[in-house]
Design goal:
Beta-Lactamase; 3 domains; six-stranded antiparallel β-sheet; five-stranded mixed β-sheet; 10 helices; elongated
Length: 338
């Protein structure tokens, strides 16, 4: 930590000792944390201290004196998540403020995200899905064949209605298996895509809007807070991720018909916001786990898929607003190009 010039030797010695003792106390305070922790001057955003975990993740180079933004890509502060990209990994920042000698300092701990399952848990769930898909697809295909043979023998309207209910139910089961199979095929914890292209997000959003009927597409509004609209992501990945987030917003606003706002906030941030009912805190804690949903007719794997696809682009999806005033906002974040 930078020390002020001291004129009085005795007083200066006391000040130095006091500062040294404070630094020792701060080191003890952050040394036991399993997470990377930085002590940062709020005015200059320079790092004054880092714990051993943070130093190890910076190649065993003490980052003290460097600007936090040169070490950690920090997203926007929000009510729920404070996204941070550090050492090729996304974290949520927990920030505590303290005042000392007319300066404001921040203790910034990079916490691992509790709302995302770890790789072993997710792989275990994916293996279970693979078994279910394999065991169910063959008998369901057989049932579908028998129903098709029965159709020509149905003569009365009531039985035909029953037939259509059965075929509709079977189609829904096949859709569920297709969703599980799609999730199963996305790698977990692997390396990012070797080749990431640049994609015009505005064009992708317009494509997604065209897939909806007019009464839905007219509720989807796009806003730009930057000059361009090109993002570091492959088109197929971006369309799938934004498609999931927009469809999620559509479902939550189906009864109210309220607006869905897609905002290109910065060259590395896209937000999807709507004014639906806030998500229950118990669901927030496991939001990106598969099979977490409040919809009886939904499987609850969309956000898991969006998160895994974002990881392939070195990005992440965060829930950044969840209250009646600001609505619900999911943010697709990418690391800074710098």
């Amino acid at each position: 930590m930078m020390l002020p010039e001291i004129c009085d030797i005795k007083t200066g010695s006391q000040i130095v000792n006091k500062k040294v003792q404070l630094m020792k106390n701060l080191k003890v305070l952050i040394s036991d944390s399993p997470d990377p922790v930085f002590i940062v001057n709020k005015r200059t955003m320079k790092i004054h201290l880092a714990n051993d975990v943070a130093i190890e993740k910076t190649g065993n180079q003490d980052p003290s004196g460097a600007k936090l933004g040169d070490i950690v890509h920090v997203g926007e502060l929000s009510e729920i998540s404070y996204p941070a990209f550090f050492n090729d990994e996304w974290f949520e920042i927990s920030s505590e403020r303290f005042d000392w000698e007319n300066e404001i300092f921040l203790k910034m701990a990079l916490k691992r995200r509790k709302s995302i399952p770890d790789a072993p848990t997710l792989n275990s769930l994916k293996n279970m899905m693979a078994v279910l898909i394999h065991r169910l697809r063959s008998p369901l295909t057989g049932m579908q064949g028998y129903l098709e043979l029965m159709e020509s023998n149905i003569t009365d309207e009531r039985n035909m209605q029953r037939y259509h209910r059965l075929t509709d139910g079977l189609e829904r089961l096949f859709d569920i298996m297709d969703e599980m199979e799609e999730l199963h095929e996305i790698p977990v914890g692997g390396a990012p895509l070797e080749k990431i292209t640049m994609t015009d997000a505005m064009e992708v959003i317009e494509e997604i809007k065209r897939e909806y009927p007019p009464n839905v597409s007219e509720r989807i509004h796009t806003r730009k807070q930057l000059e361009g609209s090109v993002f570091p992501c492959n088109k197929s990945h971006l369309k799938k991720i934004l498609g999931i987030l927009i469809e999620n917003a559509r479902e939550h606003t189906e009864l109210t018909g309220s607006e869905i706002n897609v905002t290109l906030q910065s060259p590395v941030l896209i937000k999807v916001n709507h004014s639906g009912t806030p998500i229950h805190p118990e669901l927030v804690e496991r939001l990106f786990y598969p099979f977490v949903t409040t919809k009886a007719n939904r499987l609850g794997i969309g956000l898991t898929m969006a998160q895994l696809l974002a990881q392939q682009l070195r990005g992440a999806v965060f829930l950044t607003d969840n209250n009646p005033t600001d609505g619900i906002t999911f943010s697709l974040c990418f690391p800074s190009a710098d």
